Write the structure tokens for this entry.
Amino acid sequence: MSKVYVNGAYSTKFGELWERDLRSLAVEAAVEAVKDSGLTMKDIDSIVVGNMLASRFAGQDHVGALIASELGISVPASHSEAACASGGTAFRQGWMEILSGQAENVLVVGVEKMNDIGTDEVTTGLSGASDEEWEASVGVTFPSLYAMIAREHMRKYKTTSKDLSLIALKNHMHGSMNPKAQFPKEITLDMAQSAIMVADPLNLMDCSPITDGASAIVLSNKKKKKSIEVLSVAQAQDTLALHDREDITTIGSTVKAANKAFEMAKVQREEIGLIELHDCFTIAELVALEDLGFAKKGEGVKLVRNGDTYYDAKLPVNTSGGLKACGHPVGATGIKQIVEVYDQMNERVGARQVKDLKYALTHNVGGSGATAVVSIFKNLNNA
Amino acid sequence: MSKVYVNGAYSTKFGELWERDLRSLAVEAAVEAVKDSGLTMKDIDSIVVGNMLASRFAGQDHVGALIASELGISVPASHSEAACASGGTAFRQGWMEILSGQAENVLVVGVEKMNDIGTDEVTTGLSGASDEEWEASVGVTFPSLYAMIAREHMRKYKTTSKDLSLIALKNHMHGSMNPKAQFPKEITLDMAQSAIMVADPLNLMDCSPITDGASAIVLSNKKKKKSIEVLSVAQAQDTLALHDREDITTIGSTVKAANKAFEMAKVQREEIGLIELHDCFTIAELVALEDLGFAKKGEGVKLVRNGDTYYDAKLPVNTSGGLKACGHPVGATGIKQIVEVYDQMNERVGARQVKDLKYALTHNVGGSGATAVVSIFKNLNNA
């Protein structure tokens, strides 16, 4: 089996980008990632685009063809959609294009444009990630789904609202060092605890913001100077509807994908020096730390309370600022996580630099966990 | 490189299925295709779903997760979208899952539910396959895009409206022998020529009908009794907007994908005994015959006028009835074409059986040709 490397990476600014459209964001990310890889657009054999909602928000389907057309190339261009895991599934397809021998250099682009339409419409659009007939159609929204998960986690494991606020605090502290972040500023515990309620017990500071942005990476079968190696990519599913699960404090797809990713990579959890995980809500970061196997179920709060997940502590989590502070353009998020890993391993992130980074893990989730993609990367300079 | 086989195939009835929803159609096709392959759902390592418009028409994104959840399995489930080529790109991903060593048995499902909403909304939804900012937003619809192609083809090559009607006649004659077809009945030349105009020169009988339906196939790396072999799958792109092309009587993605598919398969055009091609409009069948290399540009009409493309003639085209008579549930179409090839090669299609079939080709198009997927299959009994 041939090896797969990330050889270039780039993210646009995330935020309310009123003067930009979907295609200009995707093109900026694509062109800059290809430039970063040292290749030219002619070297690209295949394109995979991760995007969830251009169909509903912009009336534009066929976004793989759109991006290829804008870039002026005619290589196979695909569109992968798995709600907020669209970046992750696009990455997995790009990885398989190389493993299957169908491509040597693959451009993977994640993009979403979410600020151009009304808040109600965005909420309705995002609810398409849930089970429409059993959840969305009766009024369930994503804050309410994750609020149910939080309530049950609090009941079973004595997790508190303050624990969740500590996660927001940490991610905003990280985000304050990331100029690409939507909200590059710190918050205080008082601000986090007194924010307006969205879906009890989740308040505004427990929720990641939707936004505009694009991220792109170049995957290759050839090692170059800045290469990092993709050791594993594992995807798994859980039930689409939350009510079909035995225990809603655990996300089965994350557990299964993580176990498979570690097995494939032949790496131990203790070796991971950076995690970029899917904190669409603060509770999601806590649940993910446990489901990924970095804490026993119910004990993830210890890492949070100890401050272990800060960029300069023993298990850095979401140094980009996470979905919470960096922002969550849903199709881009899974690729942005890989951009952060690449930039960290190439020691070009400035103040938030993680020291002596050998292995990193990314974790991208669709909906309330029906899809999870977990990947492990190796720093070829340090590992 | 490991070989890839189609080991099971099934299509639901295509038509106005008022009492069925998206998930029940997908599940019927999936369950029956797996049964046909001799496997059980537990043997499936991966699922890829082709679908274009569930997001807009049913408020349901994340359809890969939906179908896996409905089938009760947690293997990687992806959603591939490329407008009307969504089935084709899903098939290509499934093929790469096997080639990359990530799966031994892949279930590929194409599904679309289009009759539940208003005609205007369907037309608007389908226009998402074009360039929204440059085409759809100014009122361009798909009949009008293909009407422009037809007008120019008529101007350059003296193609007539009657030539187009002959294509509809042939596809309806084939469809009359396919009980799964939406319109399993013959039409007369007079009916075809006197149908109401949709977008001059294309009348109602030049347009394929949108519809409800699902098709599924099982891909495997192991040869079984009913196996047919996938010799090649090739995808290419053309510009998204029609006005960016030098010559609108040719679709560059089809030309490029066909050349690559023949090269990869090491098969000559003369060896092809069945073509299932993308006749979203009658003119599209004519243009495709030329772009696929079965006639020189402008000379495809000879095949049509000679009756060479009937199921019992020298180059059978669209024995399923094509999109015209079998119906066009857009995400399912690319898979339905492969179901037809599989059923033909296993000699289980009844009256429309092609004799001594050795090699077959499928051709699935997205939009006005921004995406094309061309695949070649081998009959392991006859070839």
About this structure: Chain A touches chain B through 65 residues (CB under 8 Å). The first strand of chain A starts at residue 4 and ends at 11.
